[in-house]
């Protein structure tokens, strides 16, 4: 059969189904007529890859290692240079910093590089992490870059052309410092607000324009199920999902050898942030509401942040599930799928990788 004779409508229909961007590129490379037909079909949404996160600067000839959950294939992408280290993954790009604190956003699939203003942190600052907030689907809301360590948090809107006019206090080179009162454990920018969680689970909500505190959210209550081990502690991952902000709580404890391992005795918990009550005569009181089901959603979570997808966009995948990875004693990061329906976690096929994080690939 001559593939080039397939009707363009059929090729465009097929082009909307690959869950892996490399499969989409292979489809376009079959022949000229397929490439032409696929050009009129926007790339479908892609599921996250698992990224083996290097602990420090990488060797000049080293590669970044990825694992595609849909295809079950390992991928390797050349690292940008030996002087760059990974601060965090985002949707479509990796946030990198070199030894002189020059920042770079890199799309490892296309090679596109977006330079950023230098980091506002001094060279002697402790370990820094960061991320690029995904732009809204309407394209009107700007997408800031966020940098933080345990004591300070900065964000920057204007690295892209246009930016966002603002009257908020600005640090040097357009970086805005958020006046966090306590330690920064986790944080997330969502719908014009910054949610900063301290090491006690208390969340302070800042308006991103004025930097005024617009809410304080106490930590979710402990689970009413089986009591936790005394040495167990929880880790909160923020997950933007449409107009909602979710948090997924995982528990960790040490084994008999002193290693920190995931403690699954309490399962995974999902909460939705309610910013105000339904009654107009009551003052605004932000609080977390536990969710027994997340419906059609699939959540992919790391230690501190995660991504949300609709299972309807991915035939063969079911919703009401959380995908996560946990470190085993042999330093292998195993991929698990947790069902909200029955509370069970099952291990999925995966590679021998460690220090992993999720990364959402993009061809843009």
Automatic annotation (TrEMBL):
Q: Which CDD domains match?
A: F-box_SF (cd09917)
* SUPFAM superfamilies reported in the protein's UniProt record: Quinoprotein alcohol dehydrogenase-like (SSF50998)
Fetch the InterPro entries from UniProt.
KIB1-4_b-propeller, Quinoprotein_ADH-like_sf
Q: Name one Pfam family in it.
A: Beta-prop_KIB1-4
Q: Which residues form the KIB1-4 beta-propeller domain?
A: 66-336
Looking up PANTHER family in the UniProt record yields: F-BOX/KELCH-REPEAT PROTEIN-RELATED (PTHR33110), OS09G0565350 PROTEIN (PTHR33110:SF134)
Q: What is this protein called?
A: F-box protein
Which organism encodes this protein?
Panicum miliaceum
